[in-house]
Amino acid sequence: MNIVLIGFMGSGKTTIGMKLSEEKDMAFVDTDILIQRKLSLSVENIFNYYGQRFFRLVEKEVIVEISKLENCVISVGGGAFIDKRNIEILKGIGIVIFLNGRINTIMRNIRGDKRPLLKGENLSNIIEFYESRLPFYKKADLEICIDGLTPDKIVIEIMNNVKLLV
Ligand code: S3P
Predict the structure, then answer these.
(1) pLDDT tens track for 59-103
(2) What per-residue confidence (pLDDT) applies to 100?
């Protein structure tokens, strides 16, 4: 069984995923890292050179590829769990956990960030963007609130909740 972490940019999916994988002695996989490796380009440059549409195609390919994995913690880019097929695949390969937090928490985490979709956006646009994705994220099996918690505490929270599900 895999543990799949989803959520908006800045919700800590990669940091938490790495810690969780160590704690549970599972391999760690990050879809953005796989995409970057595939194209030998940073996410930022994939967006710059080829645009978002192309990025989403490669992201879909990577999600098909990871569907063969077992016993991994998988951190998924914030825009992946929007596509119907991606949702089906990810829900089919493990427990999907939505890391959610107040917009203040997310804004703190993305301060000075290079993520292409946040470049030059003001707070109200980011809130609108987050809200547009919320109905998709809510399709997760489990939602964990990250507000006021250290990464270690979030990992404990995830482990306690996963125990109840399996
Ligand atoms: C994106 C989130 C990013 C990355 C890309 C697009 C999104 O991943 O996949 O910049 O659409 O929300 P993180 O959520 O890990 O920042």
Answers:
(1) 999 999 999 999 999 999 999 999 999 999 999 999 999 999 999
(2) 98
The residue to mutate among 18, 115, 128, having the most atoms of ligand 1 within 8 angstroms of its beta carbon, is 115
Distances (CA, A) of 15 to 3, 60, 77, 109: 14, 22, 13, 11
Q: Hey, whose CA ends up nearest to atom 16 of ligand 1?
A: 9
Name residues contacting ligand 1 (CB within 6 A): 9, 13-14, 32, 43, 77-79, 115-117
Q: What angle do CA 55, 65, 69 make, to 5 degrees?
A: 130
Banded model confidence at residue 26, pLDDT cuts 50, 70, 90: very high
* 100-141 per-position pLDDT tens digit: 999 999 999 988 777 889 888 889 999 999 999 999 999 999
Task: State in Å: Cα 115 to ligand 1 middle.
Answer: 7
DSSP string, 16-47: HHHHHHHHHT-EEEEHHHHHHHHHTS-HHHHH
Ligand 1 atom nearest residue 32's Cα = 9
Cα angle 119-98-35, degrees, rounded to a multiple of 5: 55
Q: Give distance in angstroms: CA of 108 to centre of ligand 1.
A: 16
Please give the number of the atom of ligand 1 that sits closest to the Cα of 35: 9
